[in-house]
Amino acid sequence: MNVVILGSGKGSNARRLLEAERDGGLGRARVTAVFCDRTEAPILQLGKDFGVEARFLDPGPYRTKLTGEWEAAYIDSIEAKQPGLVVLAGFMRVVKKPFIRAFPGKIINIHPSLLPSFKGLNAIGQAFDYGVRITGCTVHYVTEDIDGGPIIDQEAVRIEEGDTLEALEARVHAAEHRLLPGVVARLSGE
Ligand code: GAR
To answer: How many angstroms separate the CA atoms of 77 and 75, rounded?
Structure first.
């Protein structure tokens, strides 16, 4: 099963997927491309580190959405890889109907909270500020309902007394790095 990853930043989740594939922990899934909407993002380094195609795709003039000819170019580049799965791993843009319809039931997203709580940006900070005792991360199918598609799996993370936001972020990211490769492996029909 071909997997295309979209990301915007650090790329630690994409890196974990590539490490899992290298170590035999990604089932029948093969990462065939990593596409990024920012020219300088560290995620692009994965091309050199893992010998996978990793490149910038121009997202167009808008800061948070993907639309029009730029959306069409994303769809074409992804379709060319014949993906069984498209993984949004820190892709900080809203994808819209044409994109979602191009890959029906094949787009998943990782989000750093226990959805449906704390949708949107800065989810770890939202949970920390709210004072919940348990947060975590979620992998879900992407639909037009932002951060609202069917949940595939979750991992809980407890917020300890005296926790700092930085310490909590590190534990949520560690949970994401455990959760996502397992989900991709399962979806590959492992
Ligand atoms: C991850 O924590 C992911 O859950 C989050 O961005 C981070 C990307 O990190 N995504 C969202 O907040 C989407 N709403 P990474 O680039 O190191 O994988």
So the answer is: 6
Rounded CA separation 39/166 (Å): 27
Q: Closest Cα to atom 1, ligand 1: which residue? A: 90
Q: How far is CA 168 from the centre of its chain?
A: 19
Q: Which helix (H) or strand (E) holds 85?
A: strand 85-88
* Secondary structure (3-state) at 140: strand
Q: What is the whole-number distance in angstroms between the Cα of residue 31 and the centre of ligand 1? A: 18
Q: Which domains does the chain have, with CATH numbers?
A: 2-187 (3.40.50.170)
- Give pLDDT tens digits for 10-42: 999 999 999 999 999 999 999 999 999 999 999
Q: What is the spatial distance between Cα 8 and Cα 43, in angstroms, rounded to a whole number?
A: 7
Segment (H or E) for 183:
helix 165-187
Residue 112 CA to ligand 1 center (angstroms) comes to 7
